[in-house]
Amino acid sequence: MIQVLFVCLGNICRSPMAEAVFRHQVKQAGLDHVIAIDSAGTGDWHIGHPPHQGTRDILDKNQIDYKGMLARQVTSDDFVQFTYIIAMDESNVKNLAGFAPEPADGENRASIHKLLDFAPGRKDKNVPDPYYTGNFQEVYEMVEESCARLLTYIRDKEQLI
């Protein structure tokens, strides 16, 4: 099973949006039996909370399910369990280093990327945080495009039909 973890700061805006969008795209591609998706935050402020109302509104508008999603914090086990860890910005990538376990011989480690690495043509590779900007529509458009390209990347890399 290929495991994908989306990571942002609080796990209530960007990463749950990406989780829901990617899960929707994976299901539409008929790959939900081989790709599992989750999200987490580097901070612990919102553990156990549902996605932010702005995230829920934009997902509802686009008919994308987010039922049962609750914020959680990244753990060191995530670096072994997940195949891909997809951060929303450079700050998230730096914060992930504090959770990463020391590599053991033969231990599988997740491949870490920023989501907008999969959006060619974008100069800024950081997804803005709508918790502060309020621009959930702009973030949704970035997430939707980048998740589609991420899926293509994973299909090619993992040789999925």
What's the SSE blueprint?
Layout: E1 2-8, H1 14-28, E2 35-41, H2 53-61, H3 78-81, E3 84-87, H4 90-96, E4 111-114, H5 130-133, H6 136-157
Parallel strand pairs: 1-2, 1-3, 3-4
Keywords: Hydrolase, Protein phosphatase
Domain Phosphotyrosine protein phosphatase I: 2-153
Catalytic activity: O-phospho-L-tyrosyl-[protein] + H2O = L-tyrosyl-[protein] + phosphate
Description:
- The relative contact order is 0.22.
- The chain has a single domain, classed as 3-Layer(aba) Sandwich (Rossmann fold), CATH 3.40.50.2300.
- The model has no long low-confidence stretch (mean pLDDT 94).
- The chain has a four-stranded parallel β-sheet with strand order 2-1-3-4.
- With 161 residues, it is an alpha/beta fold.
- It is built from six helices and four strands.
- Helix 1 (14-28) packs across helix 6 (136-157).
- Strand 3, helix 4 and strand 4 (111-114) form a beta-alpha-beta unit.
- It has helices spanning 14-28, 53-61, 78-81, 90-96, 130-133, 136-157, and strands spanning 2-8, 35-41, 84-87, 111-114.
